[in-house]
Design a protein that fits this description.
By secondary structure, this protein is mostly helical. The protein has one domain. 79% of the residues lie in helices and 0% in strands. It is built from 4 helices and no strands. The longest helix is centred in the first third of the chain and has 43 residues. The radius of gyration is 19 Å and the shape is rod-shaped.
């Protein structure tokens, strides 16, 4: 009986681990879709409020680039940062750290 309980616990642990992996994957997919949406709006110049929130976007995207393990997400965020950088004409200092856009783009391409 004790052996069965241990097997059940192990199976539940594996199920929870699998569910966690699925949740992480789903969260990355949501982030990718959000990044693509922002990128598309920037490219179409339909998001006039982006100018007002550029600093916040830069901070969020730079954190995503630095923390995510998804190469696809890093590339998409780096692309958005690149387009913002083009609009601003010069690298901006990110308020949460001493990094500028260019080093973030270099890190994302590694």
């Amino acid at each position: 009986m004790l052996e069965q309980k241990e097997i059940i616990k192990q199976l539940q642990g594996e199920e929870l681990a699998n569910m966690l992996v699925q949740l992480e994957s789903a969260a990355e997919n949501v982030q990718i879709v959000a990044a693509e949406t922002i990128s598309n709006l920037l490219l179409m110049k339909k998001l006039s409020t982006v100018i007002l929130i550029n600093n916040r976007i830069l901070v969020i995207l730079s954190k995503v680039v630095m923390k995510t393990k998804s190469l696809q997400l890093k590339e998409k965020c780096a692309e958005i940062l690149y387009h913002i950088n083009l609009r601003e004409c010069q690298p901006q200092q990110i308020t949460d750290s001493s990094l500028t856009i260019n080093p973030i783009l270099q890190m994302a391409s590694v």
